[in-house]
TrEMBL record:
It is found in: Endoplasmic reticulum membrane. One of its GO terms (cellular component) is membrane. Involved in cellular auxin homeostasis by regulating auxin metabolism. Regulates intracellular auxin accumulation at the endoplasmic reticulum and thus auxin availability for nuclear auxin signaling. The lineage of its organism: Eukaryota, Viridiplantae, Streptophyta, Embryophyta, Tracheophyta. Its main location: endoplasmic reticulum. GO terms for biological process: auxin-activated signaling pathway; endoplasmic reticulum to cytosol auxin transport. Belongs to the auxin efflux carrier (TC 2.A.69.2) family. GO terms for molecular function: transmembrane transporter activity. The chain crosses the membrane at residues 12-34, 46-66, 72-94, 106-127, 147-165, 252-271, 291-310, 322-344, 356-380, 392-412. Keywords: Auxin signaling pathway, Endoplasmic reticulum, Membrane, Transmembrane, Transmembrane helix, Transport. This is Auxin efflux carrier. It is a multi-pass membrane protein. It comes from the Eukaryota.
Length: 414
């Protein structure tokens, strides 16, 4: 497959995202007003609770077996490495460019989280069916490609809804705390200004040198409250551990994560799997129903992304420095790191000789940011417009970046 053939294959899923985003942006305009902010928030919650878990569950149950889980054991480690390296690079970028507080978690999420949802499922099987494919028989290659892509989507969703979710949540909490502090400070300054302007009237009514018993009592109450807050903040080590465990459990109980676990368990147990999949499966209607629900995930996510894009274009709140930084991390630094990681793993005998499996591992380092980041931005009401702007620019560049790195990776593996 030549460069232009690869460009066409890599561009297909990217163009799908851009076209549906454009439709979502048009639906959110004042002309149609079909996707206002409240509608996007409600639709986003449905995607989070219903559509995404259904998509992950059905993909795993259909395409992953116990043998696949054993043979592809390095894939979750590889995805974890992409998240770790991208997160570190994102943290360094935040320290260097010093963005607004509410954008810190978003930048780290953009740098660490790739699109494991639909790009690999479309792109890798398409490369297999091309006449110039270097991965052997078309039928066998396509079957393995779907299995690899589905497995990567499941583990990518797991990391996304644990690591990335934590980044976005921490950023939102920090931003909300800063906003509350600023509001309290502004309120206090306004009260001080009012007191200063009316100082002469107060002096005439009450002598400033003496405090009433009620004033003294109020001061004591304020001091006791502040001391109590300090004690609560300090806390004990056991309280902090309990709080951390609760946070981890809450993240593991997120609907997409539960869908991943359920799909892996049912896919790994043949007799349960045969109850749901296959032409003669007695519970096939359940699997078919969940497939219908899962099919709505990508379109709804992309429509929401386009709707947020309209506000982002109006506000233009993302500077070129942030956009270029995210692109450099995702399309230059991470792909180079990926070559070193996979070569080292191959030399140590950690990955099978299968060139298609190694290609999938490599291409994970060159994917554009995951669209689920926009879901989290909506859930926490932080950086929605900035997220849409970053998505637009990174996906415009993704077709050429994916094509270039796909060519490089196939040349390395040939």
């Amino acid at each position: 497959m030549g460069f232009w053939g690869l460009l066409g294959v890599a561009s297909m899923p990217i163009l799908q995202v851009l076209i549906i985003s454009a439709i979502g942006a048009f639906m959110a305009t004042d002309y149609l007003n079909l996707l206002p902010s409240n509608t996007r928030n409600s639709l986003n919650k449905i995607v989070f609770v219903v559509f995404t878990p259904s998509l992950i569950f059905t993909s795993l149950v259909e395409s992953v077996t116990f043998q696949d889980i054993i043979s592809m054991w390095f894939m979750p480690i590889n995805i974890g490495i992409t998240f770790l390296c991208g997160g570190i690079l994102g943290w360094i970028a935040v320290k260097l460019i010093k963005p607004k507080p509410h954008l810190e978690g978003l930048i780290m999420a953009m740098c660490s989280t790739g699109n494991y949802a639909n790009l690999l499922v479309i792109m890798v099987p398409a490369i297999c069916t091309d006449n110039g494919s270097p991965f052997g028989d078309h039928v066998i290659c396509k079957a393995k490609a779907l299995s690899y892509a589905s497995f990567s989507m499941a583990w990518g969703s797991f990391y996304t809804w644990t690591c990335t979710y934590q980044m976005m949540q921490a950023s939102a909490l920090k931003y909300n705390a800063i906003k509350e502090t600023e509001e309290l400070s502004n309120h206090a300054n306004q009260n001080t200004h009012i007191l200063d302007t009316n100082n002469d009237h107060i002096d005439q009514i009450m002598p400033s040198s003496n405090l009433t018993s009620q004033d003294i009592e109020n001061q004591c109450i304020v001091q006791q409250t502040s001391v109590g807050n300090v004690k609560k903040k300090d806390g004990s080590i056991s309280d902090k551990l309990v709080a951390m465990l609760k946070k981890i459990v809450n993240q593991l109980l997120a609907p997409p994560t539960l869908g991943s676990f359920a799909g892996l368990i049912i896919g790994a147990i043949p007799w349960i799997k045969h109850l749901l999949t296959g032409e003669k499966a007695p519970l096939r209607v359940i699997q078919d129903s969940m497939i219908l629900l899962g099919a709505g995930t990508i379109p709804c996510l992309t429509l929401i992304l386009g709707g947020n894009l309209t506000q982002g274009l109006r506000k233009a709140s993302v500077g070129p420095t942030i956009i270029i930084t995210v692109m450099l991390v995702r399309y230059l630094i991470l792909p180079v790191i990926g070559i070193g990681v996979i070569k080292m793993a191959a030399n140590m005998g950690l990955v099978p000789v299968d060139p298609l499996f190694r290609f999938v591992l490599l291409i994970m380092f060159a994917l554009p940011p995951g669209v689920n980041i926009s879901t989290m931005a909506e859930l926490f009401s932080v950086g929605q417009e900035e997220c849409a702007m970053l998505m637009m620019w990174t996906y415009l560049a993704a077709a050429f970046a994916l094509t270039t790195w796909s060519s490089v990776y196939m040349w390395i593996l040939s």
